[in-house]
Amino acid sequence: MNAPTSRLVLRAALLTLVAIAATFALDPFRNYQLATAAGCFAAVAGLTVLVGLTGQLSLGHAVLMAAGGYGYAIASTAAAEALPGSDALPFLAGLGGAVAVSGVLGLLLGLAAARLRGPYLAGLTLAMVIALPSAANVIPALAGDQGRGAPFFPVPEALSSLIAVEQWHAWLAIAVAAVAVTPLAAMRRGRAGLRMRAVLGDETAARLAAVDPAKVKTGAFTVSSLAAGLGGAVLAVATQSVSPGAYGLGFSLLLVVAAVVGGLGSIGGAAAGSAIIVVLPWLVDSAASALPADLGQRLNGNLAVLLFGAVVIAVTAARPGGIAGLPRRLPRPPFTRNTRTPETEPNQNTER
Amino acid sequence: MDRLVFLLSTGLARGAVLALFALSLVIVWRAARVINFAQAAMAIVAVYVAFALTAASGSYWLGLAGALAAGAVLGALVERGPLKLVPRDTPLPGMIVAIGLVMVLQSGLAIAFGPDHRPVRAPFSQRPFLLGDIPVLSAYALFVLLLAGGVMAVLALLFGRTSLGLQLRAAAFAPETSRLLGVRVPRMVTAGWMLSVATAALAALLLVPTELGLNPHAADLLFVNAFAVAVVGGLDSPLGALIAGLAVGVLVSLVTGYVSAAAAPLAVLGLLTAVLLVRPGGLFAAKEARSA
Amino acid sequence: MSTLTIEDLTVAYGDGAPVLDGLDLHIGDGTVLALLGANGAGKTTLLRALTGLVPAGGRVLLDGADLTGTATEDRVRGGLALVPEGRSTVVELTVEENLRLGALWRHRGAARRAAVAEMYELFEPLARRRHAPGHTLSGGERQMLALARALIARPDVLLLDEPSLGLAPLVVAQLLGVLRETASRRGLTVLLAEQNVTGALSVADRGVVLSLGEVVADRPAAALAADPALRHAYLGF
Predict the structure, then answer these.
(1) Would residue C130 count as lying in a domain?
(2) A335 has pLDDT over 50
């Protein structure tokens, strides 16, 4: 492990500990929201690296999350039946299942993505989202519209006097998200990230520099899917279920919103974006429920989407760097050591 | 056998709507080199306009005219509005803006009209005629086939035989050369958007009576299927859209009839994947398209 | 008959050194002006700046009317025509459609048909291929088409960018002949950018040599052709 990577892992570990410490300050519902946001964070981080660094837009990351969720549910249920009495082993088996299913689906899509340019891949992944309910009804293992249950992972006895189940699930979610996102962050700032930018900049030039665009795109899509799959596993742990209705078009577009609002290509932005898509709809709907019944009902669920849509357009037009791009607008103090990687998200270079 | 005839004939009507919507995607692709991911949402806004006009006046035909006009206006507004704000040298910003538009339009409709499926009456009976004792097309399906065919013929004449069509084609293929010949290219791009969204609005209007009813998401599946059709037929090929549209319509009908309704989207997804992997330019693309 | 006046024209790409730096040039009524210079001298940039395809500082006046800030299509409708380098046939359209496209804003109905017929008379090979798609044309046919498509709109000032590039000598001679003849007959003002110096000077009234974005010589065509020092220094023969 070279020095920058070990620094990155150290930083990730610190952030994970801070997040886990923060769960003590939150009530159970907030912890549940935190777990949800952590699951989304893994998926959005995967998406933002994919879009920001390779320029490939996936509208289907919800399906990759669902793949991870189904993989988790199937593997952990099987493990729980084989090994009654254990809670941790089904959880680990479930994560393995999530990685396997989302990895295979991601690899297949990645192979397609390697041959496709912009709008074609977006259309294909969109078709995938729309076909998810059908797949759930046609493939018996996915158990139709009701979906599958996943085993409940109770608080271990040693901790049961200390924390509630929501907080425990938030811990699990944070840990899994950390495992999913840290490799992405390392990849983004390493050679792989450089190759992706090369492919985005100019495929022919990349080829002349002995970078194979097809391999880079396939790899990027697969890695991105793995992160999304682990995010789906997190949601399966937190809700003990996975169903096609939870991973529809609306949710898939919200993941894109989170990536765009956070700033395409930025991991920190993905975290901020994920928090926003979990918290803002809840805030808006809480406010809407205070309105007269009829109006409140109409605004419920819709007003937040309307706001998100408007914000996405505004961000794309005015601030393509998203939230992650805001600090860079401030003057940098002189003589500070530059500890960050040079941020060269190519999609920002379009403003001239 | 009876069932096959019935499924084939309803498949053709379904295919005509698909072909029309796919054609709208081809038109805007040719005019502006974009795939408009907001096409379904924009078309549905126009259908709501038609719904309101028909409800107020009692005339289906007034509603139909309103849908065409609303589609054209919306196309111009979107092309001259939000899409002008973002750089056009890569497709990504435009696609993201389109996704933002989908969210704004669909949630806006849900706020304005509620999320329920509103039943929409067809102007003609939807009960199939009997040929002997084999059920075939309904009067409405026949109307859909004729109208879609008529509109496609008018579009073919417009693009192939008129000066406007000549300028539209030239501006799409060679914008700089066209400007050097005095063609007002920005106007042609806007005109392409107007034609495209009006066509999509008509397709969505024809679809709605055969589905659950009018809802902000009523055209989502139509968009996905039409996207598949446009890709299969080749995004540059209007004729490809027509042939592939009819073929996919029949395919969806047969799968729905003989397997299950749930299997149909999977069949379309499979077809789309296969074509994208084997021949991304589409089955009917005669030559390598100009790079976008 | 028209005049084109260029005042202090400056073009720079990105942050680099200007390709054209404060260029002044006046082209009078019915003059055929040969614009000469090595690769990179700024000929193409000048023609693109005149038609508004690249943004430029300074002023361009057509018969005294300032074109600064107007769109390409409006300059064309104002009487300026450019035959760009590389023929620029719209390959998806037929020969006839390409011609009609050039005539659309200028002529209507019967007048348009007459204008198309006139071009077929001027360029006979095109008449034989009128319904051929653009991508099937030879290089010479494409250049004829590009010239015909510009002439059909009856421009006052015609700008040509390297029309002889990649064409057989006989075809070049024929094209330049048609150009000279049409210019004289219609009193057309022509700005002909060429690497083919002898060919260009043989049909031109006046020659201007451009080097690194500046005018280094401006003389009657015959005098320019007869100056060995200048030829050697800037035109490479």
Answers:
(1) no
(2) no
Min distance B151 CA to chain C CA atoms (Å)? 23
Report the CATH number at residue C223: 3.40.50.300
At residue A1, the pLDDT reads: 57
* In a domain? residue B152: no
Domain that holds residue C42: 4-91+156-235
CA distance A14 to chain B (A): 34
How many beta-carbon pairs below 8 A join chains A and B? 152
ipTM for the assembly = 0.89
Question: DSSP per residue over A222-280, as a string?
Answer: HHHHHHHHHHHHHHHHHHSEE-GGGGSHHHHHHHHHHHHHH-TT-HHHHHHHHHHHHHH
Residues of A in contact with B115 (CB under 8 A): 298, 302
Identify the pLDDT of residue B157.
Answer: 93
Partner residue opposite C104 with nearest CB, options B167, B179, B185: B167
Contacts of A143 in chain B (CB under 8 A): none
Q: Work out how many domains chain C is built from and give that number.
A: 1
Angle subtended by helix axes A213-239 and A28-54, to nearest 10: 170
For B274-280, what is the mean pLDDT? 81
Instruction: Please report whether residue C199 resides in a domain.
Output: yes
Determine, for residues A120 and B102 on separate chains, whether the beta-carbon distance falls below 8 Å.
no
B154 located within any domain: no
Longest C-alpha distance within chain A, in Å?
64
In the prediction, which pLDDT does C236 show?
A: 64
Output the pLDDT for position C237: 59
**In this predicted structure, what is the pLDDT of residue A12?**
87
Residues of B in contact with C71 (CB under 8 A): 179
